[in-house]
Amino acid sequence: MTLANQVVYFSEKEQTFDSIILYMDLDAFFASVEIRENPDLADKPLVVGGNPKTKQGVVSTCNYKARKYGIHSGMPISQALRLCPHLTMVRGSYKLYSDVSKSIMNIVKHYSPTMKVAGNDEAYLDLTEIVSDYEEARRLAVELKDDIFATEHLTCSIGIAPTKILAKIASETDKPDGLVVVKPLDITEFMEPLKITIIPGVGKKSAESFSKKKIYTCGDLAKLPYQLVYQKFGKYGLKTWKLVNGFNTENTENKFVSNERKSISEEKTFFNRHQKWEDIWVQIDSSIDTIIARMRVKNMSFKTITLKIRFKNFETYTRAHSLSSYNISEKLVRTVVQKLLEEFENKKPEDIRLVGIKISNLRKIDNNQKTLTQFF
DNA sequence: TCTGGGGTCCTAGGACCC
DNA sequence: TCTGGGGTCCTAGGACCC
Hints:
This protein is an alpha+beta fold.
């Protein structure tokens, strides 16, 4: 299809903003909790994650002192140590983080009944029905920050804007302990100087392809004709173009509907690498156990099983099989995984770096239906 | 340089059906 | 001797997020 035939659709909804959204993000969450528990760490560059003894693994979170050295989430520990040899490392107390997170989300909940928790350390609040304007929203945000600090001694950054994505971007521009409000009429001016990578979803690869067209900031993208953007970067590019030009790219009707879980998975990396097939099967069985247990707690059933294998050269394969109907049997998972694994049985088990199991195509088990079948 | 773990979403090709 | 078109489901891989 040629470009001339392509229809680009701008709806009326995209031109209107009728919501006020607050986004809250806890600052360097895991690292901040560690510092709260052990104040001696406060003045040191600190990372949570990885194995301090073997220096394997990656950075999960780091404090702002560590970020000054160029350290960031996802960076290999060995590289972080090269950037900062006197780095302090802790393994992480994930149960504690989860408890603190729950406590904070409980506080946040008081500020609006329409809330969406997005991970351990972030949440969106719909303030549309709660406040009458952006100034009132700002005052509410200050209150929320004080509330969180008084209870949990942690700081957060807040963005307020007419959509979730803009509120998130707003919060990113003033960290830590920031508060940024972007009103509908200020969107394009606000976006213009920001780096294109500030947009959630624009990662390394997208930034690279944008830079080939001399696009580095949101303003660079905004200036281009949308036809060209669509041609070069496709659907996602066009959506990004609309965003930086101040269009509303969000579906306002169901923006706070909490979505059902789509998959449950577990994967494990072998670090010592002397495993035999037996050891790999021990790991697989244990993963199947936890996954099925989690599925049962959620009262769900599955249709698709996926095996993931990564070799030490980082070559990664996924093999999936879908059943003809929904199922809950762990035995069946094992049988299917066994079949899927056959393809790799001529490989050396010690060359395997990671195995993962995933169930997807999930469906809630209908309790009414269950009781009905008891009668018939 | 060495790359965790739990997720979501997107793309592209192929099978199959009407 | 030339093979439509739309929809749906499945698989594999990859980008990205926290």
